[in-house]
C-alpha cells in the first residue's frame, strides 16, 4: 500500500512540475526582421525589428502606449554594435526590456557593404542558432541603409517586416525578384559547382505620395519598400546585381518561376503587344562535352494563358496561336540568355551549371572543379524553349475585328 501511495505521489509531482526552461510570452520580444551591416572599426551593426503588441493589439496604426505620454509606433527597431553578432545582441539587451526571440524571424537583410565584404564570418551564428528557422527566413541584400529601409512607414501594413513577408508570399505575381530561404543559401555555399544568390530590397519612390496642384497634402509616405532583382555571390562575397528581367531569366533555369506575365510583340502588328499569364514551367540542364568544350543546354517547358492582345489579331486561327507560341518562347529564351551573359560577366554560377556537370560527369568534374570559376565565363549555353498557350479567354477575336 505504501509503495502504491509513493508511486501516486511521484506521478502527481511530475504532472504539477513546470518546464525548467519556460519562457513567458510577455518576457519575449519577437524579432520579425533582422539586418546585418558593417559597423565602425570593423565591428558588426545589428538591427532587429520587434512589433509592439500593445499598439497592434488595439488595431491601431499608431497610438499611445500605456504608461507613456507620446505616440508609439507599432514596432521598434533595436540596434546594437559588437565584434560579433552575439556581442551586438548583448549590446541590444541593455536597452530592450524583453529578451529578443528569433523563432518568428522571416527576413534577413545584409547591407551592400557587408555582402561585398563577405557574409561567411556572420553565418556561423545563424547556422548554430537553435531559434532561427532556416527554412522560414528569407535572405536579402539592401541597396541603401537597411535601418532606413526597415523604418519606411505604410498606411496599410504598418510593420515593415510583415509587409516584406506579404510581398514575398505574392512573388508568383511577377517572378521578378528572388527571395531565397536561408537554408538554401547555406546549402548552396557548400556546393562545389553552384554559387548562392539573394533577393534585393530597396527604398523606392512612392508614386501614391504625389500631390496635384490644388489637392490637399498626401497621407502617403514619400518612399515605399520594393523587392527587385537579385544579388549574385561568388563564394560568400557579393559580386553584383541582376535587374528584374535577368532575375527571371535565372529563375527560369532554377525552376523558381511560379507565375507572372510575358509581354512580347504581336505578330504582324507593329508597336502592338501581346501578354501571356504564366501558369507553370519546368526546366532541366543537360551538360555535354564536345571537341569545342563544354556546352550547357537548358530545356524549358512553359504553359500560359493568353490574357491580352493589342491590335486586330484573330486568335481563333491555329496558325496565329502557333506564332504566338513561338514568339513568347523566344521572349523566355531572351530572358535566360540575358541572365547568363550577366552571370558570366560577374563570374557567378548561380544557375548550378557546375553542379549539373558534376552529377553527369563526376570523373571529369574532379579534374576541372578547381578551375571552374575560370571555365564558367567561357562555356557555351544554349536554350531550348517549348511554350504553349493553354487558354485564350472568352473570345478568339478582338471586338474591333470584322467577322
Automatic annotation (TrEMBL):
Domain Spore germination protein N-terminal: residue ranges: 21-202
The keyword Lipoprotein is annotated on this UniProt entry: yes
UniProt xrefs under Pfam families: Spore_GerAC, Spore_GerAC_N
Keywords tagged on the record: Germination, Lipoprotein, Membrane, Palmitate, Signal
Domain Spore germination GerAC-like C-terminal: 228-393
Protein's membrane topology: Lipid-anchor
GO term, biological process aspect, one: spore germination
GO cellular component: membrane
Family the entry assigns: Belongs to the GerABKC lipoprotein family.
Protein name: Spore germination protein KC
Amino acid at each position: 500500500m505504501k509503495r502504491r501511495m509513493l508511486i501516486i505521489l511521484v506521478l502527481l509531482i511530475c504532472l504539477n512540475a513546470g518546464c525548467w526552461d519556460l519562457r513567458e510570452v510577455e518576457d519575449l520580444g519577437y524579432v520579425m526582421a533582422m539586418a546585418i551591416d558593417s559597423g565602425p572599426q570593423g565591428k558588426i551593426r545589428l538591427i532587429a525589428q520587434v512589433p509592439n503588441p500593445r499598439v497592434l493589439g488595439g488595431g491601431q496604426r499608431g497610438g499611445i502606449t500605456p504608461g507613456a505620454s507620446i505616440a508609439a509606433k507599432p514596432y521598434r527597431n533595436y540596434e546594437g554594435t559588437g565584434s560579433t553578432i552575439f556581442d551586438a545582441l548583448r549590446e541590444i539587451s541593455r536597452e530592450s526590456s524583453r529578451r529578443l526571440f528569433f523563432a518568428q524571424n522571416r527576413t534577413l537583410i545584409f547591407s551592400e557593404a557587408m555582402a561585398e565584404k563577405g557574409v561567411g564570418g556572420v553565418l556561423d551564428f545563424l547556422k548554430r542558432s537553435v531559434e532561427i528557422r532556416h527554412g522560414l527566413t528569407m535572405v536579402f541584400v539592401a541597396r541603401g541603409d537597411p535601418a532606413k529601409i526597415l523604418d519606411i512607414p505604410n498606411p496599410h501594413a504598418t510593420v515593415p517586416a510583415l509587409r516584406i513577408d506579404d510581398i514575398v508570399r505574392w512573388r508568383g505575381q511577377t517572378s521578378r525578384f528572388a527571395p531565397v530561404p536561408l537554408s538554401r543559401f547555406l546549402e548552396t555555399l557548400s556546393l562545389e559547382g553552384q554559387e548562392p544568390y539573394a533577393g534585393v530590397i530597396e527604398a523606392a519612390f512612392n508614386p501614391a505620395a504625389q500631390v496635384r496642384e490644388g489637392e490637399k497634402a498626401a497621407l502617403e509616405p514619400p518612399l515605399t519598400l520594393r523587392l527587385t532583382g537579385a544579388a549574385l555571390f561568388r563564394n560568400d562575397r557579393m559580386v553584383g546585381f541582376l535587374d528584374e528581367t535577368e532575375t527571371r531569366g535565372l529563375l527560369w533555369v532554377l525552376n523558381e518561376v511560379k507565375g507572372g506575365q510575358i509581354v512580347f510583340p504581336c505578330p504582324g502588328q507593329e508597336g502592338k503587344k501581346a501578354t501571356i499569364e504564366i501558369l507553370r514551367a519546368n526546366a532541366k540542364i543537360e551538360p555535354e562535352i564536345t571537341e569545342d568544350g563544354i556546352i550547357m543546354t537548358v530545356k524549358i517547358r512553359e504553359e500560359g494563358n493568353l490574357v491580352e492582345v493589342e491590335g486586330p489579331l484573330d486568335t481563333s486561327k491555329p496558325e496565329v496561336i502557333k506564332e504566338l507560341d513561338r514568339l513568347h518562347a523566344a521572349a523566355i529564351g531572351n530572358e535566360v540568355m540575358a541572365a547568363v551573359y550577366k552571370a558570366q560577366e560577374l563570374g557567378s554560377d548561380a544557375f548550378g551549371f557546375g553542379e549539373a556537370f558534376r552529377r553527369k560527369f563526376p570523373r571529369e568534374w574532379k579534374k576541372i572543379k578547381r578551375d571552374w570559376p575560370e571555365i564558367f565565363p567561357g562555356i557555351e549555353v544554349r536554350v531550348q524553349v517549348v511554350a504553349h498557350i493553354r487558354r485564350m479567354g472568352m473570345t478568339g477575336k478582338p471586338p474591333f475585328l470584322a467577322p
